[in-house]
Amino acid sequence: MRYLKMLGLGAMAAAAITASVGAGSASADEICTAPADATNMCPAGKLITTLELSQAGKSTLETTGGTELLSCQKSDLHIDITAQGTGIDPILGTSPTWDTTECSGTVTTINAGSIKATASGTNGSLTSVGAEWTTGILGTTCTYGTGTGTSLGTTSNTSLTVNTIIKKTAGGFLCPSEARWTAGFKITNHNTVDWINN
Q1: By three-state DSSP, how is residue 105 classified?
Q2: Mind listing the pLDDT tens digit for each residue in 17-63?
Q3: Is residue 196 part of a domain?
Q4: Average pLDDT of 138-166?
Q5: Which residue in 38, 30, 25, 24 sits closest to 85, CA to CA?
Q6: Tally of structural domains, the chain
Q7: Alpha-carbon torsion (107, 112, 114, 117), positive or negative
Q8: 2 DSSP assignment
Q9: pLDDT recorded at residue 19
Q10: Is residue 49 part of a domain?
Q11: What is the SS3 string spanning 125-193?
Q12: Do residues 73 and 102 touch, judged by C-beta distance below 8 A?
C-alpha cells in the first residue's frame, strides 16, 4: 500500500515518530541487539540505528464493521532512529519510508509523519504521528491519518502486529469516518531486538 509509504507502523504506520522528546527525562529508552549491560544501558556497539520491517501476511484496511476497503500483499517499512539513549524518552524515528506494492487500490502518501517508540518490558510500543494517506474508496478519494498519535502496537522481539483505527481527515460522505488497519511486520535487519528502559 503505498499505503504506507504509509503508520505506520505506519503507516499503517507507519510506519511508523515527530513528537516532543523529554530531553530532561529521568528515564531513557534504547533499542539494542543485546540485553542491557551491568549499568542497564545498551552494550557498546549494540545500539540499533535503523529498523527494516517487511510485511508478513496480508495487510487490510476495513470499515469498523469488517467490510474490506483495501488490501496489500507486500509492503516494507524503513525507520531511521534519530534520538535515543541517556535523557531521551521516547525514542524518536523520523521520516519513515513505506514502500508498498501488490495492493487492491492506489494509495498515495501525503505525509509519512514520524514514529515514536517506548520500551515496554523487553518489547517496544510504537506510535505513528502525523502520517496521512489518500486512497480511492467507492469511487471517491478518501484521506486517513494518524493525527497527534495512533498506536501501531507492541513488538515481540522482531515481530509487530498492527490492529488499529485510523481517522478520516478529508473526503466525502462515502468515506468511512474511521477505518481499521490490520497488518503483520517482521524486523529483517536484526535477529534480536532488545528494548531497554533505564
Answers
A1: coil
A2: 222 222 333 356 888 999 989 888 889 999 998 888 888 888 899 99
A3: no
A4: 91
A5: 30
A6: 1
A7: positive
A8: G
A9: 29
A10: yes
A11: EEEEECCEEEEEECCEEEEEECCCCEEEEEEECCEEEEEEEEEEEECCCCCCCEEEEEEEEEECCCCCC
A12: yes
Would residue 81 be called left, alpha or beta, if left means φ above 0 and alpha means ψ between -120 and 50 degrees?
beta
The Cα 100–Cα 147 span in angstroms is: 21
In a domain, 162, yes or no: yes
Cβ 161 vs Cβ 184: under 8 Å? yes
| 3-state SS class at 110 | strand
Which stretch of DSSP H or E encloses residue 197? strand 194-197
Strands 29-32 and 140-145, sheet pairing:
unpaired
- Assess contact for 30 and 91: CB atoms under 8 A: yes
Ranges assigned E (strand) in 48-139: 50-55, 59-62, 68-83, 91-103, 107-111, 114-120, 123-129, 132-137
Distance (Å, rounded) from C-alpha 161 to C-alpha 124? 12
Q: What confidence tens digit (pLDDT) does each residue in 76-97 have?
A: 888 888 877 665 667 777 656 6
Task: Note down the domain range covering 94.
Answer: 2-191
- Look at the pTM and tell me if it is higher than 0.90: no
For residue 197, tell me if it sits in a domain: no
Among all chains, which residue has been given the C-alpha cell 473526503? 171
pLDDT above 90 covers a percentage of the chain that reads: 31
Nearest-angstrom CA–CA distance, 69 and 6: 16
